[in-house]
Amino acid sequence: MYVHRIEFSIPADQDAETTADFAKSLLGALRMNGQLCGKEWPLFVENRQCVALVLAPEQGSLAPALHGEYVRKVVHQGDMRGISITFTPVAEDCTSAQTCTCHTSSGYVLFTTYLSLESPIRCLDCFLPVPLYRFPVMPSGEYYELICWQSDYQSCDRLQMNCTTLERATTRQLSNKQSSLSKQGIEICRTMENLTRTPFYYYLYRAHARSLKSEQERCCPSCGQSWHLETPLHSLFHFQCEPCRLVSNFGWNLCP
Q: Which of 26, 183, 213, 224 is the most buried (most CB within 10 A)?
């Protein structure tokens, strides 16, 4: 990912708080358009400007050509109010994953964790995150559905990792194909596959298993067919059902 600096000029007839409110509106629109990662960005005043330091997938992620309908509307509102906006790439973030550079991909997988700030869509070939703005927008006109799913998934993942509150309930959400979280994610994969004509897989988390043998014999929870891979995909996915568009891992307690 890349660190960017966004500057919002404060008009003479406005105070900093009013401009900051506008800045938050634009940052939110950019996030739902896949141009920003995460949802918490430092915002401060410097030399009659509101300044935000943000993370974006790439150096060119904030180019106007990538703005969606809602981003353009907010930018227009800023123009009408006399707020000028400057986007400046600062430097590559040294703590986050690189971005997929594949020209084409054989498929994608919906995958995220409670620690991830990157796009929840991973290339099935290189397993690096793919910026959302590379895909057609969803029915909402942006990527609202996908980003909300990511937020819900990360909340569940954080609770099950903390192991103190709702651990069993959230683990079921992550690992059960019939959970509300999984149903939402699978529907998103279907939508994205229809939009792109490229396979989209859903990742089913697997926490615990009884034994290595029983795990190897585990069948696809959708069609009941064998889906065990002899060679794990990206050293993570030990199961893949192509017809059902599902991938999963061995139970983490086995650590094969």
A: 26
CB 128 within 8 A of CB 100: yes
pLDDT tens by residue, 107-121? 999 999 999 999 999
Q: Are 238 and 205 in contact (CB under 8 A)?
A: no
In the numeric block, which tokens belong to residue 148? 């909300």
Q: Are strands 85-92 and 43-45 parallel, antiparallel or unpaired?
A: unpaired
CA–CA distance, 100 with 104 (Å, rounded to integer): 10
Residues sharing a CB contact under 8 Å with residue 238, sequence separation 6 or more, in sequence order: 215, 228, 229, 232, 248, 249, 250, 256
Query: What are 58-90's pLDDT values in tens digits?
Result: 999 999 999 999 999 999 999 999 999 999 999
Q: What is the mean pLDDT of the chain?
A: 95
